[in-house]
Write a structure and sequence with these properties.
Elements (H helix, E strand, L loop, with lengths): L15 E3 L2 E3 L2 H22 L8 H14 L3 E2 L11 E5 L2 E3 L13 E10 L2 E10 L5 H20 L6 H14 L3 E2 L5 E3 L6 E5 L16 E4 L2 E3 L5 E3 L6 E3 L5 E3 L2 E5 L4 E3 L17
Antiparallel strand pairs: 1-2, 3-6, 4-6, 5-14, 6-7, 8-12, 9-10, 11-16, 12-15, 13-14, 16-17
Helix pairs in contact: 1-2, 3-4
The chain binds 2-amino-4-trifluoromethylsulfanyl-butyric acid (MF3) and cobalt (II) ion (2 copies).
The site of one cobalt (II) ion (CO) has 5 residues, from loops.
Amino acid sequence: MTQQGLADLNVPERVLRTSQIKVHGEEGFEGMRRAGKIAAECLDMLAAHVQPGVLTDELDRLAREFTLDHGATPACLFYRGYPKTVCISPNHVVCHGIPGERYLREGDILNIDVTVIVDGWHGDTSRMYGVGDVPPRARRLVDVTFEALQRGLAVVKPGARFGDIGAAIQIYVEAQRCSVVRDFCGHGLGQVFHDSPNVLHFGRKGEGELIKPGMLFTIEPMVNLGKPQVKVLSDGWTAVTRDKSLSAQFEHSVGVTESGCEIFTLSPAGLDKPPIQGLG
Ligand code: MF3
Ligand code: CO
Ligand code: CO
């Protein structure tokens, strides 16, 4: 990483700021690897518990215990007043669904989003799960959303621009006759949960800031089967599609390397895309 000139400055972790976007060194990558691994392992653990009749609050409790047992801190708990460890967003919930007295039902699709802090570093990741047999249109939405994240990740390398990520995702998603949510975005992260830049999941190639080695951020496209508009419920968190269409999301935390990116939140169990049972 380019840190020359900072060696004798008393800057923690020698973060280099180019424009507003921080550039991190090996220490940051090592911290992000530890945090990302625990976040991914938490989602791996939850996969077996996504069953009909399970309360979303029970999944939250399991995630909280897992996080604490691994010496990590739940980043979402009490973040801006958020009351739980994870976000659980079923069916037409776009993001930030609050776990509670809601039972999982056969045919549901749901996103579980976990963020942990390990030695000050944030690991932020989410996946889609299916409950029992899931109808074909929901399975297709999950497939499209997973592929959208892969298309975004494939763009990340030094010299590309943030707009290239958004364009790759938007072009793919719209060609599948789905829509990209505009109201929420990916974000820089590291020792800060939501840092600069906003990583938009739509846009135009060649626009936005240059991507540089050492940048740390998430890509987390939300894709709707219907129109892109969302509204936030009166709890102040739960975002739903305005047209009640199904919504899906996947998220990884990444660091830019000299040749591409390192994904910190890959599933050690190979469950990056948990299998969803078919119906019809
Ligand atoms: N993990 C979410 C993200 O991807 C943020 C959740 S903030 C919370 O950025 F407060 F709703 F938990
Ligand atoms: Co995020
Ligand atoms: Co997240």
